[in-house]
């Protein structure tokens, strides 16, 4: 069993077990490839927010901005995903194959959009962007010294820390905001990680992982681990179970294309434009 780690930019746009920086989620299934846009993945995360909460996992309040942050946390990808690319070998670009300057520009644009929704939404999404460059703010291990990072990454982190300070001052409740923001950020990481596990990493029955430090309430600084186990191709169990209903359907918009090398970007884009939109059905349930 493994501990699920989202991508962090420390790894040269590589990842521990998955990533979340490429234009699309590319999942090879025998003779076909399931292509899911990041903006559709974030819709699935918003569904998880809608269903979050049991006696053992209460919602931090206000919860609305947390749900909205889930819906917008990858919004910067929207324009890019209209024109996905292929690698030198003709395969669709998957996680984590994008240069960092481009990623920073896209994420900055997405955070700007989130800030227009509300200060609290912007704060969470800014923390998410920063976390991609700082081991998810320590959830994936000690944060490396910032001085060791390239200048453009240091500038992005500094930019977001300044933004977070402005947003915090605007919200105006620092004593209660800090535990709320830390819980909100970790909830977004839970939904992001779970969605990627379901759509991309865990394709075979028997796959299992642990999502660490899941908050049970707003003041739960340490959190608890969730064990996620794939039991059949479209269903996973979670223990302890954090959603209000079981089973819980988590559909996501997707397209199927042939599993073959593509001649160039245009060939891939033509294949996607010709492909019908489908609803990929996945669900989670109690053990």
Would you report the number of β strands?
A: 10
SS element count, helices: 7
Structural class: alpha+beta
In this structure, how is the largest beta sheet organized? Answer: 6 strands, mixed
What does the radius of gyration come to? 18 Å
Unreliable stretches (pLDDT < 50, length at least 5) are 2-22
Helix content: 25-40%
Distance between the termini: 16 Å
Mean pLDDT equals: 88
State the order of secondary-structure elements, H for helix, E for strand.
EEEHHHHHHEEEEEHEE
> What is the domain tally?
1
Please tell me what the overall shape is.
globular
Name some characteristics of this structure:
6-stranded mixed beta sheet, 7 helices, single chain, 287 residues, disordered N terminus, alpha+beta, 4-stranded antiparallel beta sheet
